Amino acid sequence: MNDSLANFYEFFYYPDSGFMNLVYDEGLYGTLFFTQQAVSALFMALFYYIIAKPSWGKLPWFLMGLSVLVLNAIFAYIYTFATANAVVEPGTFSTEFLAFALLHGTFSFVSYVLYSFAFRFKSKTGRYIPIRFGKN
After folding, report:
1. Burial label, 124 (beta-carbon count in 10 A; 0-12, 13-18, 19+)
2. Secondary structure tally for the chain: helices H, strands E
3. Closest Cα partner for 37 from 4, 80, 83, 68?
4. What is the DSSP string of 65-83?
5. Inter-residue contact 23 to 103 (CB < 8 Å)
6. DSSP tag of 54
7. CA 32 – CA 46 distance, rounded (Å)
8. DSSP type of residue 27
9. What are the residue boundaries of the structural domains of the chain, listed by start?
10. Whole-Å CA distances, 12 to 20, 93, 104, 126
């Protein structure tokens, strides 16, 4: 699992500093991936089964998606920062932490959008959010 996730992340972002090698060697990809999927699915289920109201429109959906992005980015930053600073000298990978966290947050938002297509059809009140298919 760590190998396939490493290939996916490194396709989009691979600094020459050795940061991704450290993330790979410490086995952080699996934990970050499962946390990302759990938070995205939890927020999506929370939105479609508790929060979604047709009168609210798409704004709460987008705000929930932004909160998923921010939460996962913060978790990725803190988790990789704590692990890397325990292994290497603090301050070695200063900008890589932020870039990796933003990339991870972006992937979590994409997961959130993909989960929305799965959850929306089971929802009674929010099945037309974010995209309306068929007749109005």
Report:
1. exposed
2. 5, 0
3. 68
4. HHHHHHHHHHHHHHHHHHH
5. no
6. G
7. 21
8. T
9. 2-12+24-122
10. 11, 18, 11, 33
Please give the chain's pLDDT, 136 residues, in tens.
Answer: 777 887 777 787 777 768 888 888 888 888 888 988 898 888 887 877 777 666 665 667 788 888 889 999 999 889 888 888 777 776 677 788 888 889 889 999 888 888 887 777 666 665 556 655 544 4
Contact (CB, 8 A) for 125 and 53: yes
Calpha distance 72→94 (Å, rounded):
19
Mapped onto helix, strand or coil, the DSSP state of residue 22 is helix
